Amino acid sequence: MLRDKLPWIGAGIIAFFIFCAAAAPWMAPCDPYAINLEERLAPPSAAHLLGLDANGGDVLSRLLYGGRISFTVAVLVVFLSGGLGVGVGLLSGYYGGVPDAILMRVVDVLLAFPGLLLAIALVAVLGPSVANVVLALTVMGWISFARLARGQTLSIKQREYVLAAKISGQSDLRVMRVHILPNIMSPIIVQGVFSVAGVIVSEASLGFLGLGAPPGSPSWGVMLSEGKQVLLEAPHVSFFPGLTIMLVVLAFNFLGDGLRDRLDPGARSRGRVQGEDAEIEAEPSHG
Amino acid sequence: MEQTMALARQKVNQNSADDGLVVLRNIKKHYPLSGGFFGQARGWAKAVDGVDLAIPRGRTLGLVGESGCGKSTLGRVILRLEEPTEGAVLFDGQDLARLSREDLRKMRRRMQIIFQDPYSSLNPRQTIGRIIGEGLVIHGIGTPAERNERVRSLMETVGLRPEQFSRYPHEFSGGQRQRIGIARALALNPEFVICDEPLSALDASIQAQIINLLQDLQEERSLTYLFISHDLSVVRHISDRVAVMHYGRIVELADKDELYGNPLHPYTRTLLNAIPIPDPTHKKVRHPLSAVVSTEAPCLSTAGCGYQGRCPETDDKCRTDFPPLVRVNSGHWVRCHHAGATAGAL
Fold it and tell me: Which residues of chain B approach chain A closer than 8 Å at the C-beta?
């Protein structure tokens, strides 16, 4: 019974956090960049529901604004890498041959790299900024979409309706757009939802390592990292960002699981590629 | 080999005299068997290995053979879904390989295919109306309103209700889906239709309906059929002429009554013997066909007759000499050393 409800719970949590992020300017009780050194590290109180951080910034307000960074990055990365990956995978699978073989070896090589490590290297070279985080995560993210789209295309292009379309004189582009793409979308949508969770974790990780949003900005990863310094005196500073990341990632995984059961029942073994290490990242807050 | 080619020419010429709409000249389709370290070919699977056929306008040629004998591949080569390794497909006198992209596209309007599996032959994301009318859209025929009108009348022709226009394929049964496939094939008014096992996924009662529909349509529209099947009773019902295929080669070719009444190739006899007779008192001698031919896949072996491993009459000649397709009487051709001898003696 709970299994059936989890996707809805996930969707509810996601809707709540997205609403909070969107409405941050109206909902936040304080300016997220405000500095209040007198009351720094104050524990949660009626005035500051989630307490204050090391600079006296209101944790709740910063979390609300942080959602804007996380969701913007996640949506951008998933759409960019999804679009790029599906395009590459579709073309590669449809035409096959030598370009396909070369492309898939490139994908194998990229897959052999630990994704986050390469993202760290890229951001380190390009310089830490939100735009470069999006770029680095897209460079890593398109691969799984390309593999998935290629595999699906290989199976769908054998279907007789695709042959029928070719016989009726349709161009390759039209065959791909009308007959293949709509029939490979289900697993790709599922993959997209799981990737959102993965990207949020990766963005937070980069922030935590000081390679994402600049220090002092209200990003969940940066907040976690800043709270780490004062973990013993003021655990609330890192606890709440950690809890938020965990909840959001869990919610996307619940939603992804539900969508997969609904749209792509054959694929239990796939998916859940990236979101798995969510709890590990959130750990400092509990320790 | 030389002799075969010469005979094939002769046959083709003879057939083009009585107006072969589709003429196949020495069609070969070999697939590389990759498996080497760098994916180079280890050998070739000869799915179709030198087929000469002519299908006269308005007639039906039945093509029979067991699964994997290359009959569907041949159909796909004719439609140029697959490039032949060798040989030419002539449609209405024109070599399809020499047509430009645009001319081939136009030529494709004139030939269509009805597929075996009515579940994978319809795009699950398109409505029936779109599926049937897509060819019209592609070739820019008519205004949208005219196209809809045409699709509706096609639906009636094949026995579907026009108000099902906006339904999706999953709402239909196998037989209805096959009717949708037939309507799609007919949308562009083709002259030649390949029926690639169109009945094998259907129940016996539905099979009868569909075969009657195909026959009615042939009569109304003077269609030319290539009817691919492994079911000899169905082929007997619908064909004018029947070709028997065994591992990529035509082993016997004759008019329907001649082939069923006087089968000369041992393979044809075995196939005919396997047709079930709906009479419990009927006792017959069975000649079970050995499934395993030899340790090597038959499509790979080179020397001698392709049927040697399964044939009860194999002798030394069959092991060394490749039998040519010989004419035994007018319109009856067979590829067998022994059948040729018997026929010659007659």
Answer: 76, 79, 81, 105-106, 108-109, 111-113, 115-117, 120-126, 131, 134-135, 138-139, 181, 184, 188
Give the pLDDT score at A282. Answer: 40
**What does the pLDDT average to over A108-120?**
87
Are residues B190 and A164 in contact, defined by beta-carbon separation less than 8 angstroms? no
Q: Give the number of other Cβ atoms within 10 Å of residue B94's Cβ.
A: 13
| Torsion (CA) B308, B314, B317, B318 in degrees, nearest 10 | -20
- The token pair at B291 is 């499934």
Would you say B224 and B56 are in contact if contact means Cβ atoms under 8 Å apart?
yes
* CB-count burial class (<10 Å; 0-12, 13-18, 19+) for B269: middle
* pLDDT surpassing 80 at residue B180: yes
Q: What is the pLDDT of residues A122-172, one digit of tens each?
A: 999 998 889 999 999 999 899 999 999 999 999 999 899 999 998 888 889
Terminal CA-CA length for chain B: 25
Q: Do A169 and B79 touch (CB under 8 A)?
A: no
Buried/exposed code over B178-216 (b: 16+ C-beta within 10 A; e: otherwise): bbbbbbbbbbbebbbbbbbbbbebbeeebbebbbebbee
Q: Is the pLDDT of residue A279 over 60?
A: no
Residue with tokens 């949708």: B180
The phi and psi torsions of B84 (rounded to 5 degrees) equal: -70, 145
Q: Rounded to 5, what percent of chain A is helix, strand, coil? A: 75, 0, 25
Q: Is the interface score ipTM higher than 0.90?
A: no
Residue A134 three-state SS: helix
Interchain proximity B108–A159, CB inside 8 Å: no
pLDDT digits (tens, 9 = 90+) for B54-97: 999 999 999 998 887 888 889 889 988 888 988 999 998 888 88
Nearest to A39, CA basis, from A24, A15, A67, A58: A58
The closest alpha carbon to B288, from B298, B278, B273, B276, belongs to B273
Residue A268's pLDDT band, with cuts at 50, 70 and 90, is low
Beta B241-246 vs B60-64: how paired, if at all?
Answer: parallel
Spatial contact of B51 and B74, defined as CB atoms under 8 Å apart = yes
Angle between helices A115-126 and A130-156 (to 10 degrees): 140
Interface of A with B (CB under 8 A): 159-161, 163-170, 174, 178-179, 182-183
DSSP of B93-124, one letter per residue? TEEGGGS-HHHHHHHHTTEEEE-S-TTTSS-T
Which residue in A73, A49, A67 sits closest to A241, CA to CA? A67
Residues A229, A233, A236, A242: is their CA dihedral positive or negative?
Answer: positive
| Collapsed DSSP state (helix, strand, coil) of residue A238 | helix
Output the average pLDDT for chain A: 87
Distance from CA of residue B240 to its chain's centroid?
13
3-class DSSP assignment, residue B334: strand
Rg (CA), chain B: 21
Contact A167/B79, CB-based, under 8 Å? Answer: yes
Nearest Cα of chain A lies from the Cα of B38 at a distance, in angstroms, of: 12
**Is the CB of B113 less than 8 angstroms away from the CB of A166?**
no
CB contact under 8 A, B116 and A166: no
Please give the pLDDT value at position A273: 41
Local structure of residue A169 (DSSP, 8 states): T
Distance of alpha carbon B259 from alpha carbon A136, whole angstroms: 69
